[in-house]
Design brief:
Blueprint lengths: L1 E4 L5 H13 L3 E6 L4 E6 L9 H4 L4 E5 L19 E3 L2 E3 L5 E5 L6 H14 L3 E3 L17 H14 L3 E4 L6 H7 L2 E4 L7 H10 L3 E4 L6 H13 L5 E5 L17 H8 L4 E3 L1 H5 L5 H10 L4 E5 L17 H17 L5
Parallel strand pairs: 7-8, 7-14, 8-9, 9-10, 10-11, 11-12, 12-13, 13-14
Antiparallel strand pairs: 1-3, 1-4, 2-3, 5-6
The structure holds phosphoenolpyruvate (PEP) and manganese (II) ion.
The site of phosphoenolpyruvate (PEP) has 10 residues, from loops.
């Protein structure tokens, strides 16, 4: 941490900063400029300390962080890429793992038709929401437990792993009985009670990026899962809020190489929620693979026109099949496969 003192600071004020650092077991390095005094605070855990502990002291103008606030998710903590394995399907390796399915579980027929189609095209994990985090309480909230049971039936029948969202910290045990991967939605990225409970379950988890959250906040949220001993964490970029309103959100394509640079965790991309429109999904999915994503989470519905949720951004099985073919050549070009 760098503590910048106010112009004209007194020796007593500088001493106050030194004493506070000493009391925390940190060392200091004093830099006496012509007009300014800058105190460097040195220690291995300064990233996890609040800047306020120095900012509140008399004579302090500003405190800047050098160390990142996240620790367990960082490449400094673990240099090699983490792999998450779901029934032998590895996420974070050479294979691009495609998870596909409807936004919401609606019926057994809908799921069966979807699984047949996505498996045929090469997707290997089924997505489907049983608990839906809806903006309005008057919108369809999902089939809840009945939806989980349908997912489990189809999982059994087709031998395909399932990812589904958990929205309530109290439902973690229930949902993890039916799902192979728990999904933390964008609206819950900083629901710390939920993250802690999922961390304790030690089951594979996809942590979506909150749409108003920085990459640093996202990785710090991942630390909540990792801190409980859950190493099976996959990040998912799904678009953030910007001033642009011609798409539902703005896909931050930069976050993929940024995550790869600063973290060891695998990262996948959801082009469906990012764009909000079926016609835009293929281009963005291909861009994600080209940028280094380890997988994709795509909404596919056998009949998008009749979908209860997110029909506009859902691909038909035939559009999905075409996209998967196109993705194979992109994957090959970047040394990956589907
Ligand atoms: C979803 O995947 O169904 C979903 C609700 O996504 P997000 O949390 O990214 O909005
Ligand atoms: Mn959706």
């Amino acid at each position: 941490m760098i503590v910048e003192m106010r112009t004209g600071t007194t020796p007593e004020e500088i001493d106050g900063v030194k004493q506070r650092a000493k009391s925390l077991g940190l060392s200091v390095q004093l830099n006496l400029g012509t007009n300014k005094v800058v105190v460097a605070i040195l220690g291995s855990n300064t990233g996890q300390l609040p800047t306020d502990i120095f900012a509140v002291l008399p004579g302090v103008e500003n405190v800047a962080r050098i160390m990142k606030p996240y620790k367990l998710a960082s490449r400094e903590f673990k240099a090699e890429n983490s792999l998450v394995s779901i029934n032998g399907i590895e996420i974070g390796g050479k294979r691009i793992v495609v998870m596909a399915g409807p936004c919401a579980v609606e019926s057994e027929e809908q799921l069966v038709e979807t699984v047949r189609a996505i498996k045929r095209s090469g997707a290997c994990i089924l997505r489907g929401g049983a608990f839906k985090p809806r903006t309005s309480p008057f919108s369809f909230q999902g089939l809840e437990k009945a939806g989980l049971e349908l997912l489990a039936r189809v999982r059994e029948q087709f031998g395909i792993p399932v990812i589904t969202e958990v929205v309530d910290p109290h439902d973690v045990s229930l949902v993890s009985k039916y799902a192979d991967i728990l999904q933390v939605g964008a609206r819950n990225m900083q629901n710390f009670a939920l993250l802690t409970n999922i961390g304790r379950k030690k089951c594979p988890v996809v942590l979506k990026r909150g749409f108003s959250c920085t990459i640093t906040e996202w990785l710090t949220a991942a630390d909540y899962l990792l801190a409980e001993g859950n190493n099976q964490v996959i990040l998912c970029e799904r678009g953030i809020r910007t001033f642009e309103n011609s798409t539902r959100f703005s896909l931050d394509i930069c976050s993929i190489p940024v995550i790869k640079r600063f973290s060891h965790l695998p990262v996948i991309v959801d082009p469906s929620h990012a764009t909000g429109h079926y016609s835009l999904v293929p281009a963005v999915a291909k861009a994600a693979v080209a940028a280094g994503a380890d997988g994709l989470l795509i909404e596919v519905h056998p009949n998008p026109k009749e979908a209860l949720v997110d029909g506009l951004q859902s691909l038909t099985p035939s559009d999905f099949a075409r996209l998967m073919e196109e993705l194979r050549s992109i994957a090959k070009a970047v040394g990956r496969y589907i």
